[in-house]
């Protein structure tokens, strides 16, 4: 009798355990994937010099005691705090940040996020199982997609990762995230693709892959890897208040940007010159459309490509080169992915009929900041800087200065960079504002040329302080003719 009870209990345990074993046996192993891909993932350390107030002033600054009263020393120290206010010398100190990246070619090209390296004065890269920190050169960055390309030289071929086709990735697929969370070093987390095409308000071309693989501060710029060992996305954003919700830039979007940054140090995007909005159900019904689709044109900029191609206010853009346009975000991504100068066929819905327009795209580069300012005020004279290979002009209007992130009209706006020139080699871009040359303010071409012909000629170099997208950066240009 006891034997029968024992056998019955054993059978019950077996029935309960077998399904768990079967499930466990069906889970993939990530061991080989981590070993294969890990060596191509890098840790990125950046250093930035920032201005801070006088530390002694901060030390002696009192704001009342813990009983709510006024500190007796406050009046004494306020006289020093207020003396010469606005003219106190600024102190500079180093601040550091950490991020991730991954190698995309054996010669040391690295992909990471723009926000990991933007405005950094120094960038260093650490490889897996290598204690050495290699200095990295910033090849190019793109704020609108939050991507950047770096280059390191280590004297040997490096392991690298290749990109997957993110369009073929499906919700529910296993993925692996590798990065440097919280500065801990190489860390591997696994999960699945939770969703595709997420718009989170990070930029004009949002099209994120959502994943539940753990992504934390420091993972930015690291790869999201499929089960074949290919990069399906670049880990970029998290929702701080949520768990298991991370976002990656799809590889197909990233590849186009990265290729341009490697070759041109900047990204050129197609430009229509319209403002658009999504059409709601009532609007589509009023326009006679059978479904909620496309992008409704609510203004057309005079002289821009759409205007020249015959587009009108009230048109609904349905297709670009035969590719269906679902909404405004879809149109922005589609047009931006095409090169400036390309002639495209655009199908629009106009007064109950489909009309095909032929439009030659303009260049989006610099339009978001510079073009608006151009329309607000007349142009100043454009002037060539032959030694550097660029065209600049003065900034002399408050509205234009504000649009470029300047406190007041100052500096020289770069409006053209010659291909193959010293300026291009130093990654100077259209829309940059030159504030200083060799630490001297420059508000005219004459001032810039004087520095070029004196200090520049003597040293063979000129260091420019630039304002780019609201941030200060330095670029040093080697002069070919000393």
TrEMBL record:
GO MF annotations for this entry? Answer: serine-type endopeptidase activity
One GO cellular component assignment for this chain's record is:
periplasmic space
Superkingdom field: Bacteria
Kindly indicate whether the keyword Protein transport belongs to this entry: no
Q: Where in the cell is it found?
A: Periplasm
Provide the catalytic activity annotation.
Acts on substrates that are at least partially unfolded. The cleavage site P1 residue is normally between a pair of hydrophobic residues, such as Val-|-Val
Please report the stretch or stretches of sequence annotated as the PDZ domain: 261-327, 392-469
Print the keywords alphabetically.
Answer: Hydrolase, Periplasm, Protease, Repeat, Serine protease, Signal, Stress response
What are its E.C. numbers? 3.4.21.107
User: Which residues participate directly in catalysis?
Assistant: 115 (charge relay system), 146 (charge relay system), 220 (charge relay system)
Q: Name one GO biological process term.
A: proteolysis
What are the binding positions for substrate in this chain? 115, 146, 218-220, 236-240
User: Could you tell me which InterPro entries the record lists for this protein?
Assistant: PDZ, PDZ_sf, Pept_S1C_Do, Peptidase_S1_PA, Peptidase_S1C
Q: Which PROSITE patterns match?
A: PDZ
Query: So what family is this one in?
Result: Belongs to the peptidase S1C family.
Q: Write the protein's name.
A: Probable periplasmic serine endoprotease DegP-like
Q: What is the lineage of its organism?
A: Bacteria, Pseudomonadati, Thermodesulfobacteriota, Desulfovibrionia, Desulfovibrionales
What gene makes this protein? degP
């Amino acid at each position: 009798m006891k034997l029968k009870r024992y056998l019955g209990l054993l059978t019950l345990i077996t029935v309960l355990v077998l399904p768990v074993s079967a499930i466990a046996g069906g889970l993939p192993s990530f061991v080989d994937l981590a070993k294969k891909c890990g060596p191509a993932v890098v840790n990125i350390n950046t250093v930035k010099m920032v201005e801070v107030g006088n530390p002694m002033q901060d030390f002696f600054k009192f704001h009342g005691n813990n009983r709510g009263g006024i500190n007796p020393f406050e009046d004494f120290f306020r006289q020093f705090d207020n003396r010469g206010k606005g003219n106190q010398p600024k102190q500079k100190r180093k601040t550091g940040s950490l991020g991730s990246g991954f190698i995309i070619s054996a010669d040391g090209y690295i992909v990471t996020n723009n926000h990991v390296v933007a405005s950094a004065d120094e960038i260093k890269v650490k490889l897996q199982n290598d204690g050495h920190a290699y200095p990295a050169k910033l090849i190019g960055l793109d704020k609108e997609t939050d991507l950047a390309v770096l280059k390191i030289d280590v004297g040997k071929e490096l392991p690298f990762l290749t990109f997957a086709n993110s369009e073929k990735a499906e919700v529910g697929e296993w993925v692996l995230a590798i990065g440097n969370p919280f500065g801990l070093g190489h860390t591997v987390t696994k999960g699945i693709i939770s969703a595709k095409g997420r718009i989170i308000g990070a930029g004009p071309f949002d099209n994120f892959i959502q994943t539940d693989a753990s992504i934390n501060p420091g993972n930015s710029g690291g790869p999201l890897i499929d089960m074949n060992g290919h990069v399906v996305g670049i880990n970029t954003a998290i929702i701080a208040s949520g768990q298991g919700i991370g976002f990656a830039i799809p590889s197909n979007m990233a590849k186009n940007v990265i290729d341009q940054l490697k070759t041109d140090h900047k990204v050129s995007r197609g430009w229509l010159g319209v403002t658009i909005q999504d059409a709601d159900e009532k609007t589509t019904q009023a326009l006679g459309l059978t479904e909620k689709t496309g992008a409704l044109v609510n203004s057309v900029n005079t002289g821009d490509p759409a205007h020249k191609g015959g587009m009108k206010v009230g048109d609904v853009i349905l297709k670009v080169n035969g590719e269906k346009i679902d909404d405004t975000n879809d149109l922005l991504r589609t047009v931006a992915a095409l090169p400036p100068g390309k002639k495209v066929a655009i199908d629009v819905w106009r007064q109950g009929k489909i009309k095909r327009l032929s439009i030659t795209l303009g260049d989006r580069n610099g339009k978001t900041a510079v073009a608006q300012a151009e329309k607000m005020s007349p142009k100043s004279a454009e002037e060539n800087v032959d030694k550097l290979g660029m065209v600049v002009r003065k900034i002399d209007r408050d509205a234009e200065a504000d649009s470029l992130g300047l406190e007041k009209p100052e500096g020289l706006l770069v409006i053209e960079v010659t291909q193959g020139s010293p300026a291009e080699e130093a990654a100077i871009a259209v829309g940059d504002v030159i504030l200083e040359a060799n630490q001297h303010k420059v508000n005219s071409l004459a001032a810039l040329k004087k520095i070029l012909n004196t200090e520049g000629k003597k040293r063979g170099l000129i260091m420019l302080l630039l304002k780019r997208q609201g941030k200060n950066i330095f670029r040093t240009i080697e002069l070919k003719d000393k």
